[in-house]
Design brief:
The protein is of the alpha+beta class. Helix content is 27%, strand content 34%.
Length: 226
């Protein structure tokens, strides 16, 4: 009798737990559409929120390019693309090799269109000396993320050389990597470093050559733009 009583008690407990699980599952099933609707409503409300849109559209965004040159046969062309339905202003600042800034006149990029800006023309219009024939630059605008896309093309059309640069996107890391190649013994290359922060930086440079890692002398106190 005692064993039967214990067995019956165990079955009762099992059935009770099973019932509790079924009730919990039913409650979740009933509540899920409401939670989904609330989440969707919250997202729609945020997307349609005038204050949220105003805050996003009033955010200042800056893109940095580490190097340009307009010396000798080289020309640097900055291409700005505006995919938004509204015109946007781009604010371009050049930095010489010693960090001196040159603020250029603002450029208006029409909605759904692009501009191609030769830097040599902008520099000559600014009526400055040859101090800014090479250096780095930043492009800033006020608007939504990816409101303006930018690309810098540096080319020597006489000799058929060119390379493109785009601002870093997505995840930011303290480690940067690049691929380089040499066609012959006459080919030379340079690594351009630009400090876009407000503090000096220390840089360690390693070069992989023929399956060997070559460590270059460390660069201490890489100064930011003035």
């Amino acid at each position: 009798m005692i064993h039967i009583a214990r067995f019956i008690s165990s079955r009762v407990v099992c059935f009770s737990l099973l019932g509790l699980l079924l009730i919990t599952a039913l409650a979740l099933i009933i509540a899920w559409p409401k939670r989904t609707a609330l989440a969707k409503g919250s997202a729609d409300k945020k997307a349609n929120c005038p204050t949220c849109r105003a805050a996003q559209n009033s955010t200042t965004r800056t893109m940095a390019f580490p190097y340009y040159t307009t010396q000798d046969n080289w020309e640097a062309t900055l291409t700005l693309n505006n995919p938004t339905p509204n015109p946007l202003q781009a604010f371009i600042t050049l930095y010489s090799l010693d960090g001196q800034p040159l603020v250029l006149p603002a450029q208006t990029v029409p909605a759904k269109k692009y501009l191609r800006l030769p830097l040599s023309n902008l520099i000559s219009q600014a009526r400055v000396n040859g101090h800014f024939k090479e250096g780095s630059l930043t492009v800033g605008f006020i608007g939504p993320m990816n409101g303006i896309g930018a690309q810098l093309t540096v080319a020597d059309l006489r000799n058929g050389y060119s390379f493109d640069m785009e601002p870093p996107m997505g995840f930011k890391s303290s480690r940067l990597e690049g691929v380089w190649w040499s066609q012959n013994d006459k080919t030379s290359g340079q690594v351009m470093l630009c400090n876009t922060t407000t503090q000096p930086l220390n840089v360690e440079l390693n070069v992989d050559w023929q399956a060997s890692a070559l460590t270059a002398p460390a660069i201490s106190g890489c100064v930011p733009p003035v």
